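Lab notebook page, bench 4
Experiment: in silico fold of construct C2
Operator: M.H.
Input chain length: 247 residues
Purpose: comparison with the prior construct
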Amino acid sequence: MKWEIIKAIEHGMLNHYEMIARLEVPGGWLIKYIDVTGRNGHARQGIAYVPDDENTWDISKDPVQWERIANYRGPNFTEDTYRFAVPSGWIVVQGYYPAGKKHSHVSLVFVPDTEHCWQKEKPTVKEENNPMPREDAERISTGVRTDPSRMSENDVGAIVAISGTVRDVKEMRTKKGDSMAAVTLESPGGVCMFYFFPDDYRRCHDLLLHGNGALTIEGRVESIDEMVTLTAMKAQSSIENEGLIFF
């Protein structure tokens, strides 16, 4: 018996990914979902059973379509609910992400719906205000200026902007031999680490190494552990009226 990966979703770097796998069992399938985040590999996972008497589910014809159907962001926690079609129904994945160092979790359930008639409800206000796919939204300046000391695990995956002083630029090499850098930024709310991959590092090289050190860096939050770590997207001098933005 061997689990078969039927969908994998990568989220940048630092071991943040999601995976859906299936295992053939008598009369159907076991579906396993795993979400791993952070350098310490904190994992959230769940399992559910899908009935399929003849085990006829053909992934090549019916690939997994991951769809968010509900989202709630409260003052101390976030809840996300997703679904994907399976034989004779749906798998619903619900995630609960509390603030601080408390562990989050996910749960799975099978919803019978032979004809797949379940229509997605009208998007929430948050989704209506940002209907663009995540990849398209990231090309625009979407970063919300924030304080690292107030960030929690709920913010993993969010696009934020942090202002501070560059304390260290550690250059390293990718497997292909290209230069990238780990930039330590000290802000009033604490120290965080931005990883600049080759293309962005080339564009921001002079600003990072030869600027005045006071920057606002925009990026995607990858993990909230001992230090907030992010994948850098843009950098801008914090000096008023200097107006240098590197894309």
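Observations: Helices lie at 125-129, 134-138, 198-210. The chain has a mean pLDDT of 79.
Next step: discuss at group meeting.
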